[in-house]
Amino acid sequence: MGVLLSLHQVHTVYGKKIRALRGVSLDVRSGETVCIIGNNGAGKTTMLKTVSGLLKPERGSVRFEGADITGQPAHCIARRGLAHVPEGRHVFPRLTVLENLEMGAYFQNGRELSRAFEHVFALFPVLDQRKSQLAGTLSGGEQQMLAIGRALMARPMLLMLDEPSMGLAPVVVDRIFDIIRRINQEGVTVLLVEQNARRALQVASRGYVLETGNIVLEGLSETLFQDPGVQKAYLGI
Length: 237
Hints:
The structure is a single chain. The chain is of the alpha/beta class. The chain has a single domain, classed as 3-Layer(aba) Sandwich (Rossmann fold), CATH 3.40.50.300. It has 10 helices and 10 strands. The protein has helices at residues 44-52, 74-79, 97-104, 110-123, 125-129, 140-152, 170-185, 197-203, 221-226, 228-235, and strands spanning 3-14, 18-29, 33-37, 59-64, 67-68, 82-85, 158-162, 189-193, 206-211, 214-220. Helix 3 (97-104) packs parallel to helix 6. The chain is globular. The protein starts with a strand and ends with a helix.
């Protein structure tokens, strides 16, 4: 598998000169699911925003499919096939489910648009049932499904998910992680940021541990799961 996404020595300053990333380097290969685990404030969200173009790195490089996308506008990066589901879902509450999905497919048309709707409704039948319902009236789990579905409407090669289980009931979390597995099995590469380290390592093939803006550990998920430091800090073992 070739490298799809690569970060090399990325430094990003966030807010009032907070150095959120301090030389982050990582690779995501085509077809795999990679997780990033770490405590609040570690820089996980900043990293995803830097990749998707919402933040511009101070220095370092971000490459996607071999092309340098460092600091490019977010809409240009999205067109390349990279979709970002932000923390907190951020659906458009006063738009319907259907309208939210259409927002994710603003550069799709014709047959591709029809295929995108078919794919999303197959993954999330509840969205098909609630097409005309306002997004703001959905449950938290349904809004998370809508946020993921909206990203998938762009037919991405790489799907980045920021804390998809946050604030959801355990049964809904199970459903979300089952869907993440299915999305990956269908050929979409996944980069997952998740504070629930146990679930993240279960769904991912590899992982990175991010602490105060630095990658401090990386490896196969099974290896990280057995690491005493990871067990103590993130798994409650």
